[in-house]
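Quick note —
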Amino acid sequence: MVIDDEPPAIPHRKLAPGKLVIASHNEGKVREIRALLAPYGIEPVSAGSLGLPEPEETGTSFTANAELKARAAADLSGFVALADDSGLCVDALRGDPGIYSARWAGEAKDFAFAMRLVNQHVEEAGPDAGRDAHFVCALSLCWPDGHVETFEGRVDGTLVWPPRGDKGFGYDPMFQPLGHQQTFGEMEADAKHGMSHRADAFRKLVAAVF
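Predicted structure written out below.
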């Protein structure tokens, strides 16, 4: 007789239609998440529009920071909250800027400066270091009772210089996904939504909770 010691899989909690807080003050992220949620009967409202404060991101991973932000927004608002933590990971920089991607842009959120800084460090690493990079996104859903579901997505690509395109946000103009000739900064929103790290995480979320 074979004894299965594996614990039974815990079912995902389903998300009902209704109001949901997008736990972000980044309008670019809010816009993308709002578009991804549109087909599912969700009424998204941003943390910024509710006047919710931004919690300090003290986690050491994308998942930890996404869960921290989702828990804070759900607790303060009384609604289910969806938080995103995402960033650019550059092989030549041993994964930096990673979870510090937004902080590289400074208090002014100057991503033109951040992109110059990334490119400078990559060039200093030397030609053998290459320009491979990937974006990571962790999406966390938190209910007011503290239950959390988290899903992580990734897209691989390479860094270009100078940046190209004025669409998207953040590091998009310097990131060219594998198999494509345009940067995220040059792509229309629908094209980016079909392949991005956020879309990858969102597909997993949809399969689990809707």
